[in-house]
Amino acid sequence: MTTMAGTESRWTGGLSPFGMSWQKLMMWWFIVTDALLFAGFLGGYGFSRLGSSNWPRVEEFFSLSYLTVMTFVLISSSATMACAVAAAKAGDRVAVARFTGLTTAGGILFLGMQAYEWAHFISAGGRPWSNPHGDARFGSYFFLVTGFHGTHVLIGVLILFVATLRARAGRFTGNGIEVAGLYWHFVDLVWVFIFGCFYLI
Amino acid sequence: MTDEIGAPRTPPNPATPHYAIYFKIWGVLLVITLLMVFTRNPAILLPGMAAKATLIALWFMHLKDERRDFIFYIAASIVLLSLILFAVIVPDGKVM
Q1: Can you tell me the ipTM of this complex?
Q2: How far is CA B60 from CA A21, A104, B52, in A?
């Protein structure tokens, strides 16, 4: 066993490297690898875009206002998730259930808006292999990157839905909610770069 | 609450949690987002994205409360490798 005092010192093979639970540490390592996956996607996107002479102007077929609302929804759900973690640390069961429930609702709303965005682009002729607005590779990157991100959101929604049910039943841990929160904030963090690189630059 | 194997056995803090800081960060994130959307200037967009990511990582993900060596591992692995990717490889797209 490692004592609490032992967890504060440099890790020497005890049970709590870096003074944190193994679940939290594993989630951080997952986040590192997943962040580099998305960095690779966006790097490929930037590489292709710089070498293209007919890259599409996204504002001609996407509504920036609509995308800003999507971003607002995701940022807001991240704030409620941070509150859920604070409530879980304090052992406030009702607040945990309320905040994880709100975060889940935010995730579902974001997914619905994402589905509408996809339907809009598909109805405008966008395909993973072609794009009537310019360079065909834009369609490939759009569906690949937003699809991967949307899948992350969907997984997060499922995790948070279960967390909400468990919190309502009083079966939660501060550590468990914190690890779920790390994942959800990462999903929000990735969207910062997708929104910036795909729609604003 | 139940205990979990491997989790630090810290008792729940009975004090009322403070949510205000998270809503302040939320407000700052929204202001930066609106600034980015309305200007669409790369001089605003790149620092804006970096600022938002930093705020989310430090406050929402509580990275600022972790040990310094851990913060270094996370920052070095993600930021350094991403910088190499975007500063060294991506610009080659221009000449391809």
Answers
A1: 0.89
A2: 18, 17, 11
